[in-house]
Write a structure and sequence with these properties.
Blueprint (H helix, E strand, L loop, with lengths): L15 H19 L12 E6 L5 H12 L3 E6 L11 H10 L4 E6 L4 H8 L3 E7 L5 H15 L6 E5 L6 H12 L3 E5 L15 E3 L3 H5 L4 E4 L15 H8 L14 E3 L12 H4 L6 H19 L6
Parallel strand pairs: 1-2, 1-3, 3-4, 5-6, 5-8, 6-7, 8-9
Helix pairs in contact: 1-5, 1-10, 2-10, 3-4, 5-6, 5-10
The protein binds phosphoric acid mono(formamide)ester (CP).
Phosphoric acid mono(formamide)ester (CP) binds next to helix 2.
Length: 309
């Protein structure tokens, strides 16, 4: 089985079979990461370019490492010092990378739909590394990989997503992906940080209290407050946000010891989650980062035309 599309632009329209294929391939890739050598030649002669118009640590570095571990040429375009600053359009930048032989362009952009525009206009495969408030498919895939690795399955899992749902492309991709895989998703957020029509994204339950969101869940996913995307104040103060919508010892005290705490990062410690949750044995935040490399290796591998290994 292969991926149907040339690009990975979002999880909307991606089948459960394709998600399984990516996660199964990532499982194989993780054995390479766990080996001392961390080196295979699956992408020998291929060129992977990261083109990030927004800041990133995890996503950009993990794509670069994934490409390098598989023998590809990995190049990062530093947008701040590139010809974008001279007014070059996204399409022209993409065509320039195409002309230099890029096989895969990984793009992060503050505008929703930018990866789709690029994908329509260049020959290279395009991977969406986050577009505005739209989707962050590779983050959701690594989150699903981490859940499946721990619980052995996604079907029937109960996942509570708590925080700034409105601005979160991570939440959107996770809701689409998790519901495609048969998981049950509950969300809890200040009403000002909850999009209208939430339930239409999948079978999502919108909760009115933190207690309702956390009850019976297997996974609790906190989200970063995205102050850079807020044009006006959408909650009264950081203190009130952390008190009513943050995860802390008090509101998680009745959860079982097998419940996982997740966060896509970067975390605003004490605002979305207290440090003792972030650093607890039930937190898999660092494991998510490790698994991100395996998932991105799988995507690079599958997009260069390889079938499952
Ligand atoms: N989770 C995530 O996308 O992190 P970065 O912004 O560091 O890439």
């Amino acid at each position: 089985m292969k991926l149907r599309q040339k690009d990975v632009l979002g999880l909307e329209g991606v089948s459960s079979g394709e998600i399984e294929l990516i996660l199964d391939t990532a499982k194989e890739m993780k054995t390479i990461l766990d080996s001392n050598k961390k080196r295979v030649n699956y992408l020998q002669g291929r060129t992977v370019v990261t083109l990030f118009y927004e800041n990133s640590t995890r996503t950009r570095v993990s794509f670069e490492l994934a490409a390098k571990y598989m023998g590809a040429h990995a190049v990062n375009v530093s947008v701040g010092s590139s010809s974008v600053q001279k007014g070059e359009t996204l399409i022209d930048t993409g065509r320039t990378l195409d002309a230099m032989g890029a096989d895969i362009v990984v793009i992060r952009h503050n505008r929703a739909g930018a990866p789709h525009l690029l994908a329509k206009n260049i020959n290279a495969s395009v991977i969406n590394a986050g577009d505005g408030m739209h989707e962050h498919p590779t983050q959701a895939l690594l989150d699903m990989f981490t859940m499946r690795e721990h619980f052995g399955k996604l079907e029937g899992l109960k996942v509570a997503i708590v925080g700034d749902i409105y601005h979160s492309r991570v939440a959107r991709s996770n809701i689409i992906g998790l519901t495609t895989m048969g998981a049950h998703v509950k969300v809890f957020a200040p009403s000002t940080l909850l999009p209208v029509g939430m339930e239409e994204l999948g079978s999502v339950k919108v909760c009115n209290t933190m207690e309702e969101a956390l009850e019976g869940c297997d996974v609790v996913m906190g989200l970063r407050i995205q102050l850079e995307r807020q044009k006006k104040a959408l909650f009264p103060s950081a203190y009130e946000y952390s008190r009513f919508f943050g995860l802390n010892n008090e509101n998680v005290k009745d959860l079982g010891s097998d419940v996982l705490f997740m966060h896509p990062g970067p975390v605003n410690r004490g605002l979305e989650m207290t440090s003792n949750i972030i650093d607890s044995d039930q937190s898999v935040i660092n494991l998510q980062v490790t698994n991100g490399v395996a998932v991105r290796m799988a995507l690079l591998y599958l997009l260069t035309g390889r079938e499952d290994i």
